[in-house]
Amino acid sequence: MTTSNPSVLRDGLLAGKSAFITGGTSGINLGIACRFAQAGARVTILGRNPEKAQRAADEVRKFGPDVLALTADVRDYAALDAAIRTSVEKHGPIDILINGAAGNFPAPAVGISANGFKAVVDIDLLGTFNACRAAFEHLRKPGANVLSISATQGSVPTLAQVHACSAKAGVEMLTRVLALEWGPAGVRVNAIAPGGVEDTEGMRRLSGGSEESRKKGAETVPLKRFTTCAELAEVVLFLVSPAAAYIHGAVIPVDGGHAIAGFGTLPMGGG
């Protein structure tokens, strides 16, 4: 995992801050964890697989020493609540919560089972709510940030993505409602909606693992390329920084203009 270099954001931007990242063992969220560690934060990454979590923690430690790897399924509220409490014991009150746990696979509506639909909604939407709800009492108020990773599917109807579109639309509305409710406590709540992200499992699944498909997908993006985990991490770092102190209740697309171009036929979002 690499981080963006050079950065326009100052060194030590998150010094003394504590960040808790669900789905932090791979892809977009691992990139965010590495960038936060590089910026001086104490980082807790949460995943479902203990071995994968430890490998990810070793990667994050290349950028900063204060890293904690925990395991829990975000669909299991009790387990998630226990993990958050462990993080708070080690790293103190939570300054930044990143909701990144997600599941996805391409399937038309008639080709997905009720259980398959439910699994994606439970991981993406219920898991995001569970993390927010369990973390709220531990957020540093005022001054904390909650940021969720949505996708272009949250606003653009996309073929073979009825499950992800429904789940991410829910995540975006959850973001807005929590912004209304938690803003008075001084907690900022936002989301980003990436499009296609290079070198991620999401990209490999949704493009079918084909280089030709990936190149065709990139041609539908006005900027003619997909983003990277490092680029997304810079956007997230900005949004949780004092420079974004008045951005609240926003869902910010980071997709190279893909959504505004009206391309909803290719399932390119996800990390």
Would you write up a description of this structure?
This protein has 271 residues and is of the alpha/beta class. The protein has a single domain (18-254), classed as 3-Layer(aba) Sandwich (Rossmann fold). Helix content is 39%, strand content 13%. It is built from eight helices and seven strands. It has helices at residues 27-38, 50-60, 77-91, 114-135, 162-182, 201-206, 211-219, 229-239, and strands at residues 18-22, 42-47, 67-71, 96-99, 145-149, 188-194, 251-254. Helix 3 (77-91) runs parallel beside helix 4. The chain is globular, with a radius of gyration of 17 Å.
Structure summarized in a few sentences:
With 271 residues, the chain is an alpha/beta fold.
For this entry, give a set of tags.
271 residues; alpha/beta; Rossmann fold; 7 strands
Instruction: Report the biggest beta sheet as strand number plus sense, adding barrel if it closes.
Output: 7 strands, parallel
Uncertain segments are: none
Strand content: 5-15%
Rg, alpha carbons: 17 Å
CATH topology: Rossmann fold
Q: If you average the pLDDT, what whole number results?
A: 93
Spatial strand sequence of the major β-sheet? 3-2-1-4-5-6-7
Helices and strands, with pairings:
Layout: E1 18-22, H1 27-38, E2 42-47, H2 50-60, E3 67-71, H3 77-91, E4 96-99, H4 114-135, E5 145-149, H5 162-182, E6 188-194, H6 201-206, H7 211-219, H8 229-239, E7 251-254
Parallel strand pairs: 1-2, 1-4, 2-3, 4-5, 5-6, 6-7
Helix pairs in contact: 1-8, 3-4, 4-5
